Amino acid sequence: MKKILGVMVLFLALPAFAQAPVGNAQAGKAKTSMCEGCHGVPGYRTAYPHVYRVPKIDGQQPVYIVNALQAYKSGARSHPTMQAIAQGQSDQDMADLAAFYSTLNQ
Ligand code: HEC
Is 99 exposed, middle or buried (0-12, 13-18, 19+ CB in 10 A)? Predict the structure, then answer.
């Protein structure tokens, strides 16, 4: 029974993967101007508007970055700035940004 369930989940999940846009790191780089002030390229410290902790996104798995952005967009994750930013992004924008940030190694 467990095995059958596992196979079913796989089949249900596959179309979702197939539809996810493929990220282009080059295109993503061009979209980071909005992120740099806080997430910094490279590094992740910010001194504006005051010093506060910004999570490091450089070198994260693309799927981790996309999931986080989708969660801000849907409201599942709340942070006023990140929600506003994610709401202006298409799935392609997120995939491109994720592709770029995942190539950065700290
Ligand atoms: C005004 C500052 C600011 C800007 C601009 C900004 N971010 Fe963020 N970002 C934050 C903060 C603060 C958090 C942590 C919020 C929280 O606690 O959920 C965050 C969280 C994230 C996360 C989740 C990271 C994790 O480990 O959970 C991702 C991914 C992310 N930002 C991507 C981006 C991208 C891509 C851009 C540009 C399109 C961007 N951010 C622009 C401040 C910013």
Answer: buried
